[in-house]
Each structure stands twice: as structure tokens, then as C-alpha cells.
Amino acid sequence: MKTITPISHVILASLVLLFGPTIQTQAQTMVTGTLAYWSFENIGTFYSSSTIGKFSTTAAAYGETTNTTTKTMSGNTNGILGSGAYLDFNNVTGYVNGGYTPGTGAGWGSFTNSGHNALILSTNSSTLTQGMSIVLNTSGYDSITLSFDYRAGGSTSTAETWFYDNGTQSGQLDTFSTTAAQAGNWYTYSKTFTLADLANQNSLTLSLTYLSGAGGGSFSLDNLTITGVSMIPEPATWTLMTGGLLVISVLWLRKSRAG
Prior knowledge:
The protein contains two helices and 15 strands. The chain is an alpha+beta fold. The chain folds into two domains: 6-26 and 235-258; 29-233, Jelly Rolls (Sandwich), CATH 2.60.120.260.
């Protein structure tokens, strides 16, 4: 039997050393899915200058049903991957779902402004440090992106903080603010969080707390969206090419041995 020549050993060893590690590397594809969404369009009574509006307690075609007993609003169901997401307003002291004069008390309800049908959290000095919560499922996702349109009411600066709680770990996610000059205008917030405590959770709570602002002020949200982000490994082109080169090398060595 003919033995493998030293040069063949060198070629094979070189290929393994050069391309071997590449076989174990994989490219990754980003996969996203909307886990929860609220458009705040399911309105029962519209906002007016004298009365904060009410969201409907009857389900629309896309969900977003308000329950005044549990003080919750179900998530939008139109093309949403997640199920069971809802808004919780039990930490807002005051009126439940509108029906009161703006600036006279704390609570939450429907707000209409500059083309936005939105959620308004009306505050006073007794309700600072309180806010609403989002409860959702992030199973199968490595990180989440939180986005929404927002508006502060009243000629004052405000500060709001997002917190998280997965039942085991909890903490602060992010704080953002508005200045007095920004009051009355709409802005967009969007940020991705890669914290491990948020990933793959059957039940994750995100809480928005109104930390500071003038009594009788307000904070409004629209197009509230939570998107899951997951990185899926897949074979890379270079991996396949390297595998092909190794196969060719082995076949060439076998042919040399047979010869």
C-alpha cells in the first residue's frame, strides 16, 4: 500500500489549520416579531377640551378592549405574534378610563391631538411616581425594542422612567425627559434592550413611571410597540466553501494513496 507523501500531510494539515475554525463559525440572521402593540383607536367617547375621553369596553376587530373592573386594556391582535399582552393601570390613583375634566384630577383615558388618538395619563402632585404597566410574553426572543410616540402636557419639564420585573429580577431600564419648551409637541422614542432579564420570559412587566412634572400635567402615548429580536444561526457561505475544499483534499489524498 502506498503511503501518503509528506507534502500531502502538509497540505492537509494546512487546510485544517487555516479553515477548520471557520467550519464552527456561523452567520446569524436577525428575526423580529411584534409582541405587543396599541394604536389606541378603539374609542368609546372622544376627548374634548372639557372632558377626557373613554376607551371602548367593547372589543374592536383588532382588540384593545378596556376593562374598567380590572383597570386593564388588552393588546392589539392585528398581526401580532404575542398573545395575552395587556396594559395595567392599577398603579394609577384616580379616575378610571376618562370622563373627567383635564387638569382637575389624576387618572387615565383617551386623548386626541394633532392627528393622534392616544392614551393620556393625567397627573397631579399625589400621583407622581405612579404609572402604568405592560405585561407580555418574550419567549423565544433575545432582546426587545420598545417604541412609542409621546407628548407632555403643561409648560413644565417632565421625567419618566421604564422599569422591568420578570418575577425574579427587577430593575430600571431607561429614563427620558421632556423640557418645558417641548411641552405640547409629539416626539418618538425607540430603543433596543439586550438585558438577559428581559429575554425568554413567559411573563415580563414593563412599567412606565411618571417621576416629575407639574401637578395637573399629563403624559400621552401613541403607537406603543414592543418588538422581539432574535439572532438565528445559519451556515455561512464561507463555511460551505471551506467544507468543499476539505472534501476535495480528502478525495485527492485517497486517490494518491490508491495510486
